Amino acid sequence: MSSSQPQKDSSWLPIYLALGVVWGCSFIFIKLGLEFLTPFGVAFGRCALGALTLLAWAKYKGIALPESKKVLFHLWVVSLLLNVIPGVFFALAETEVTSVLAGIINAVTPLMTLLAIMVVTRKEKPKLHQVVGILIGFTGVLTVLGAWKGLGDNPLWAILILLAAVTCYGFSFPYSRRFVLPHKLAPESIAAGQVTLGALTLLPFFIYNGIDTYEYKAAPVFAMIALGVFGSGFAYIWNFKVMALAGSAIASSVTYLTPVVAVIVGVIFLQEKIHWYEPVGALIVLLGAAIGQNRIKLRLVK
User: Fold this and answer.
1) How many CB atoms lie under 10 A from the CB of residue 83?
2) Which residue spans within 123-228 are E strands per DSSP?
3) Helix, strand, or coil here: 204?
4) Greatest CA span in the chain, whole angstroms?
5) Where are the domains of the chain?
6) Burial class (CB in 10 A: 0-12, 13-18, 19+), 148
7) Distance CA 91, CA 102 (A)
8) HSE (side-chain half, CA atoms, 13 Å) at 117
9) How far apart are CA 152 and CA 158, in angstroms?
10) Does the pTM exceed 0.85?
């Protein structure tokens, strides 16, 4: 019995690594998708393909989809916060900034989540490690941007909408916890309903202005397929499996892996330039997130 335990405990690791790689590659997939799609097209494409994947999986597993209008409304709000607005904003920003920078800014998500929880639950006094973590994290953001030398070639509007996108991510978690999770739906049902509602919301925008050019090259097309089927489809399933096998703390730590992957693939495959302060800032951001989540304990001198 004891000899089989380590294998059981480590069974989540391959899925965890796959999740980190897929989400880390999302930013280069977005950049490639923009070669023939508009930002609305990229956002819709990933949602539509993700919805088809999740609906097929739910059908295969015999999992019922949400039917309550109240639940569907809350799932629609979650889809706005997790899929629609960030999907458009990340794609729009990547028309001007590198996929590396977008991936690094995405690492601010745990800090925004912590900040959102503190805002939503204002009755609870913020803990010292949370305040310190947020301050360190946003110092890291300023470092990533090279604030002491301006924003370089990065337009201010692109940086602001990237930060707005991760702010949406941050508020999606306390909203889901309060309005969706109490209904005790299967995680696959939540994901399928959420991504499908996101695709339906984006459909009119795609019809109006979704395709930039009708020249379809293999790499951008396959990038969009990977972004949708894996990044917005199987990734949710894998995330739920890691949560079930290893717990939510380990599942949420995948955020520490995705910027590393984003930097590596952006530099190798797109030959994107990286400045020394971007990875340094990313490390400061991740340190702030770890302290804010109490993964790294503060030792105060008395």
Assistant:
1) 27
2) 148-151
3) helix
4) 66
5) 16-292
6) exposed
7) 9
8) 19
9) 12
10) yes
Q: Residue 276 has which token pair? A: 């020394």
Place of tokens 């005790």: 184
Residues 49-89 have pLDDT tens digits of 999 999 999 999 999 999 999 999 999 999 999 999 999 99
- What's the CA gap between 37 and 116, in Å, rounded? 32
Q: What is the mean pLDDT of residues 2-8?
A: 41
Kindly tell me the burial class for residue 200, based on how many C-beta atoms sit within 10 Å of its own C-beta (0-12, 13-18, 19 or more). Answer: middle
CB 280 within 8 A of CB 143: yes
Give the containing element (helix H, strand E) for 231. none
The residue whose two tokens read 């310190």 is 132
* Residue type at 272 in one-letter notation: E
pLDDT at 171: 93
For residue 8, the model assigns a pLDDT of 47
> Do residues 26 and 259 make contact, with C-beta atoms less than 8 angstroms apart?
no
